[in-house]
Amino acid sequence: MEPLLHILLKPDNVPIVLMVPLFAGILLHWWRAARRHDRLLVEGGEAAVRRELDGPLPEGTPEPKLHTWPYLLRVELIAALATVVVLLVWSITLDAPLEQLADPTRTPNPSKAPWYFLGLQELLVYFDPWVAGVALPLLIIAGLCLIPYLDVNPAGSGFHSWRGRRFAVSVFLFGFVGLWLGLILVGTFCRGPGWNWFWPWEPWDRARAVELATRDWPALFGVSPGPGASLLGGATVLGWYGLGLVGWRLLRHRPALQRLGGSRYAVVAFLLLTMLAVPVKMALRLGFSVKYVWTTPWFNL
Amino acid sequence: MTATRFLAVLLLLASPLALAEDAVGVVRGTVTLKGTPPKAPEVKLPADLAEKDRAFCTAKPSLVPPFYVTDKAAHLKDVVVWLTGVKGAAGPATPRSLVNADCRFEPHVQAVTVGDELKVVNRDPLLHNTHPVYLGDQSTMFNIALPEQGQEVKKKVKKPGVLKVQCDAGHVWMRAFVHVFDHRFHAVTGADGAFAIADVPPGKYTLNAWHEAAGTQTREVEVTATTPSQSDFSFEVKPVP
Amino acid sequence: MVQPVKPGGRAAESTSYRAPFLLLCALLFLSTLWALWDEGWGRRPWKATQARFNEVLAQRGLPPVDEGLRQVTIPALDVADRCQSCHLGVDRPGLESDEVPRVLRTHPRRDELLGRHPVERVGCTPCHAGQGLQTKGVGGAAFAHGRDDPYWEQPLRSRPFIESSCVACHASEREVPGAPLFNRGRALFEDRRCSACHSSRYVTTPAPAAPPLDRLREKTSEAFVVAWLRDPVKLRAGTRMPAFWPEAGARREQEPVAIAAFLGSVSEAASAPGSAPPTREEVEAGKALFDAVGCRGCHQLADEAAGPPEAGFGPRLDGIGARATRAWLQAWLKNPRAQFADARMPDLRLSDDEAAALAAFLASQVPAGEQPLEPRWSTPDAALVSQGRQAVLRYGCQACHRIPGLTPAGRPGPDLDDFGDLPPERVEWGEGRPACDFTERECWTLAKLRHPQALRRPGLDLVMPRFDLSDDEALALSVFLLSNRAQPAVPRQVSEASAAIAAGEQVMARHNCAGCHEVAREERRVGDEVQTTVRGGQIRRFYDDDALAPPPLSRAGQKFQLRWLFDFLHQPRRVRPWLSVRMPTFALEDREVEALLRSFAARSGQPFPFEREAPLLAGPGERADATFLLEKMQCARCHAVGAGRDVKPAERAPDLTLAAGRLKPGWMRAWLLDPQALQPGTRMPAYFFLTDDDDPTSWSTPYPNVLGGNATRQVDALVWLTTELGRQAPAHPEGAPR
Question: Does ipTM come in above 0.90?
Answer without folding.
Answer: no
